[in-house]
Please model this.
Amino acid sequence: MDVLQFFLSNVSLAALSDSKDLAYFGAGLYFCNYFKYTYATSPALLISPAGDVAGNKKALEALNELLPTFAVIDDGIKDNEKLCLLVERGNFWGMGYLSSTLEITSAAELKNYLQPYADNDTIRNSIYSFVESNPEKRRALML
Model:
């Protein structure tokens, strides 16, 4: 499991507003309360150790934008349908069957057709593994 996935599944982003440091190391995002790294590839990701609440909120918003939103589209049970799973901001949102002629470009639109389900590490890891093995089935979406 990715450190970011583990962290985001166990800690609310809102709880980070008092966090001292945020560091980006290329392999993933790591939140550092115990280490004093303040390097990031994007200035928007730096959280101020001085307690700059507005700057910290801006950094959290930038982090939120980095989390992937995509759909996994595969064959449905019937010929005229397709299976769709939605991952929004890195977390599994839900799934359902869509008409094979339906074209979706945004997550908000797709939510009207899918059944929401609870997110958990097992589902999320299965989806990410599937998408890694089958990248052609991943469709990037706008929020």
User: Anything to note?
Assistant: The radius of gyration is 17 Å. The beta strands are 22-24, 29-31, 70-75, 81-88, 91-99, 115-116, 138-140. Helices lie at 3-10, 53-66, 107-110, 121-133.
